[in-house]
């Protein structure tokens, strides 16, 4: 690629150098889930200079998403989040090789995707347990490096966000369920999945039932900056591992 095409990365190059930029340009990252966590993760990864990305989300924008999700605006309600993020990312880097899936991925298609396509890193930004487990199982079975976002709801303090191996997380109900289920399904407790989680206990009175919602029976209230902070932490894991 002509060096002038990468001038937009000149500030990044000052920080990490030419060799790291080249590694990022050659990398292929999968981001599953483009809500409050995944949308920020995907955009930050794109802005860091990753050359190939696959993004997946079958959901559309709703008014209640506007407090925390990049795709959510008054003018985008009813539109597919994956398509909105595709257009945003291509405005950041028109040279990126970007693949977009606008359907919820069931276990078999998810595993098939990871088997058929070589990803250098997976970002799990799914907030529902069953699809999350399917992705984490597939990533583990295909030995694909993975960072997984745990529960961002019910939290207010971004300084309590941590990055650790999944088996070292605590004070997070979602992480506890994920660890338990994966262990029951034969995955070693000390698995290689990196987790982004909060040490802050969720505010119990912010819990609501979500009857009828796909894969989810309940959800916590959220504030604008916590899911974004989770997403940026996930992006940092990806970028730092790719250039290390």
UniProtKB/TrEMBL annotation:
Domain of life: Bacteria
Entry-linked InterPro entries: ThiF/MoeB/HesA, ThiF_NAD_FAD-bd, Ubiquitin-activating_enz
Family annotation (Pfam families): ThiF
All copies of domain THIF-type NAD/FAD binding fold, residue ranges: 11-242
Name the record gives this protein: tRNA threonylcarbamoyladenosine dehydratase
């Amino acid at each position: 690629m002509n060096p002038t095409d990468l001038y937009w990365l000149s500030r990044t190059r000052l920080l990490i150098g030419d060799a790291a930029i080249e590694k990022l340009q050659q990398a292929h990252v999968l981001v599953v889930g483009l809500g409050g966590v995944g949308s920020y993760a995907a955009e930050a990864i794109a802005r860091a200079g990753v050359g190939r990305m696959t993004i997946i989300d079958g959901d559309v924008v709703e008014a209640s998403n506007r407090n925390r999700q990049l795709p959510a605006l008054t003018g985008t309600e009813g539109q597919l989040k994956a398509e909105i993020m595709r257009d945003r990312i291509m405005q950041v880097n028109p040279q990126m090789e970007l693949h977009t899936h606008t359907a919820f991925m069931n276990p078999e298609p998810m595993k098939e995707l990871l088997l058929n396509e070589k990803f250098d890193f997976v970002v799990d930004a799914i907030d529902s347990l069953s699809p999350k487990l399917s992705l984490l199982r597939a990533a583990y079975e295909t030995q694909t490096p993975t960072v997984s976002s745990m529960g961002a709801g019910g939290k207010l303090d971004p300084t309590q966000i941590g990055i650790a191996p999944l088996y070292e997380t605590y004070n997070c109900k979602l992480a506890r369920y994920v660890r338990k289920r994966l262990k029951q399904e034969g995955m070693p407790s000390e698995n290689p999945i990196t987790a982004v989680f909060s040490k802050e206990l969720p505010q119990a009175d912010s819990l609501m039932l979500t009857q009828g919602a796909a894969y989810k029976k309940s959800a916590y209230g959220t504030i604008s900056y916590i899911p974004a902070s989770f997403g940026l932490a996930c992006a940092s894991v990806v970028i730092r591992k790719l250039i290390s």
